[in-house]
């Protein structure tokens, strides 16, 4: 028997941008179901398995636990504490919103399968000196060897912004090779792996990609791999 379930709590947006000069940033949630939902929220620095009570991040998030009535909403307030973060590049954290399953009310309910849905989206802290957003214009693409006899597609990001991809493909001749999308850190690089089932030899060619802007919208771009 197939089971179908979905999260009751929906976050407005797929990422949060926190400008350093802001006193706070608000994130809106909505309960799309016909029953009330108890919710826990927290911010982590990249470890998805970390205990929320033991995480140290430079933000205060309120409320940490709350109830959302059916078809109603809730606003989360994120406040930067002023703890030192790099001023020449973005920093990334993660906003977590988890539904807390209700306690069983009778003996029969103890046999029910309860799912604790958690939504996790990126939170980018943007220093005051950075006035723009992620762009593909400065990216440098290369086909390189990984030391294991395999060729991989590498992208270097000389910008101070995180760049998140939703699609990356390399076309050489009449063949297009697609890669698992990833995120590249400011002044960093990442090597893309080919999608499962494909192990083609890579050669220099035309790159097509889609990156995500501050609003989570896809922005198409193209380049040439050296």
UniProtKB/TrEMBL annotation:
GO biological process, alphabetically ordered: cell wall organization
The Pili assembly chaperone C-terminal domain, residue ranges: 155-219
Signal peptide: none
Domain named Pili assembly chaperone N-terminal: residues: 9-130
GO cellular component: outer membrane-bounded periplasmic space
Location(s), subcellular: Periplasm
Keyword terms: Chaperone, Fimbrium biogenesis, Immunoglobulin domain, Periplasm, Signal
Keyword check for Chaperone: yes
Family indicated by similarity: Belongs to the periplasmic pilus chaperone family.
Protein name per UniProt: Pilus assembly protein
